[in-house]
Amino acid sequence: MNTVGIGLDIGSVKIKIARVRKKRGGFEVVSFGSRETPPGAIEGGIIKDTKILGETIADLAGELGIRNKAVVTAVAGPQVYTRIISMPRLTIEELRIAVRYEAAAFLPIPVEQTAMDIFPLREYQDYQGKRAEIFFVAVRRSQLDDIQTACRLGKLKLHAIEIEPLALQRLLPDKRSSGTQAFLNMGASRWCFSVHQKGVPVFNRYFSFAYAGYQPGAVLPYSENVPSWSASRETDKLIFDMVNEVARSIEYFRIHYQSELSKMFITGGGTRVRGLDKAIALTTRCKVEIEDVLARVSLVEQVSSGDLEELKHDFAVAVGLAVRGGDFWWQIKK
Ligand SMILES: Nc1ncnc2c1ncn2[C@@H]1O[C@H](COP(=O)(O)OP(=O)(O)OP(=O)(O)O)[C@@H](O)[C@H]1O
Ligand SMILES: [Mg+2]
Prior knowledge:
- The protein is an alpha/beta fold.
- Among the domains are: 80-141, Dna Ligase, domain 1; 172-290, 2-Layer Sandwich (Nucleotidyltransferase, domain 5), CATH 3.30.420.
- The chain has 9 helices and 16 strands.
- The chain has helices spanning 50-64, 92-104, 141-153, 164-169, 234-257, 276-284, 293-296, 305-314, 316-333; strands at residues 5-10, 14-23, 26-36, 42-43, 46-47, 70-75, 80-88, 114-126, 129-140, 157-163, 180-186, 191-197, 200-207, 263-267, 288-290, 297-299.
- Helix 1 crosses helix 3 (141-153).
- The chain is globular and about 60 Å long.
- The protein starts with a strand and ends with a helix.
């Protein structure tokens, strides 16, 4: 089969795998599936038990018929550090070495315990001479080791590890547009907010708290006629605080980057809470749209309405990761 990419999204509540293939003008989802994350496997966004996690992944990979295939997965959580930094203009190899010294100044964990990657964004000249702007990402090395082990035990070949905002960015309708767009991935145990400009995630923030206690079909007490949404129940208060945190991040971004968000796409399990999109729009004063994976990729075959709902709400990261596999395939074919 002409399969081009498999994305594995290891969530703290749900493990998701999506498999896509290239078709004229885009991608289509060939198959997808999920498993509940076994208790104790992930805590606070960090892998705690690679064995039990690997067994669950192997089970899901078996069901989808993708044993020993290459997958792209993401590292997430509070211990992922991203930054745009300015460096003297050097070759990429020189930059990779130089950035380790630079990073020692701002990383909260020892450089020798981290894995880093860089991506050059633009070259420019100022009073310091020829310079380059670089997208920098660092993560605790042990987190990568654990992902590697979980994939090996899960009987999958690990092709690449990236960060959630990069996966989501592939789903933007117009990646290279000059506008400033954002994603808010509302997972069961953490939210991730990222701002994207011209195909680059320029700002990224994790909130290490979330609330997944709403029952299916829960509705927030939001009304179009009330100027600010009232949070009377304790659970609503919690989500109200979280939305305010996002609003503060947007304010920070507005001031420091002197740029306005043209749109924010929301995704993840939190999008199941009805009214949350409107509450976010009201609090953050942004245009908010629920990310519809199926507006970007099509489905090879019809699935039940329940599966369709699941794909729409929970699979954006997995599909975005899978599409990277597609890019890779395209490069090789070229
Ligand atoms: N705010 C919420 N309210 C109700 N249910 C939620 C909420 N967030 C998540 N869920 C439930 O959790 C499931 C998994 O959501 P999701 O895939 O976004 O979480 P995850 O990726 O496992 O978590 P995380 O990204 O935080 O590690 C959803 O299908 C949904 O049932
Ligand atoms: Mg998630």
